[in-house]
Design brief:
This protein is an all-alpha fold. The chain has one domain (about 5-65). The protein has helices spanning about 5-25, 30-40, 50-65. The protein starts with 5 loop residues before the first helix and ends in a 23-residue tail after the last helix.
C-alpha cells in the first residue's frame, strides 16, 4: 500500500478518503480539507493536481467507478481527446 504502483496509490487514496470522512464526521467539505492535508504530506502525489484528485476520488467512491490515475486531468493537463466529463 505504500509503493508507487497504481494499485498501491489507489489503495492509499481509498484509505485516506475513508479516514478523512470518518474524522470529518461525514462532512464533505471538511473531508476535502483533511484530504488536502494528507496529500500534502504524501510525496507520491506531488505530480498530481490535488483538487482534481480529491474530486475524482470522491466521485469514484460515490459512483463505484474505478480510479484512473493515468488521466492527464489529474495531473493538471488537458483532457484526453473525446473524453467526456460532466
Amino acid at each position: 500500500m505504500h509503493g508507487t504502483d497504481p494499485r498501491d496509490l489507489a489503495a492509499s487514496l481509498t484509505s485516506m478518503h475513508r479516514t478523512a470522512l470518518e474524522r470529518a464526521r461525514w462532512d464533505q467539505n471538511e473531508c476535502k480539507q483533511k484530504m488536502r492535508e494528507y496529500l500534502a504530506y504524501d510525496g507520491r502525489f506531488r505530480d498530481y493536481d490535488h483538487e482534481a484528485l480529491i474530486n475524482r476520488v470522491q466521485e469514484c467512491r460515490s459512483n463505484g467507478a474505478i480510479l484512473d490515475l493515468d488521466d492527464p486531468v489529474l495531473k493538471g493537463q488537458e483532457p484526453r481527446p473525446l473524453s467526456y466529463r460532466y
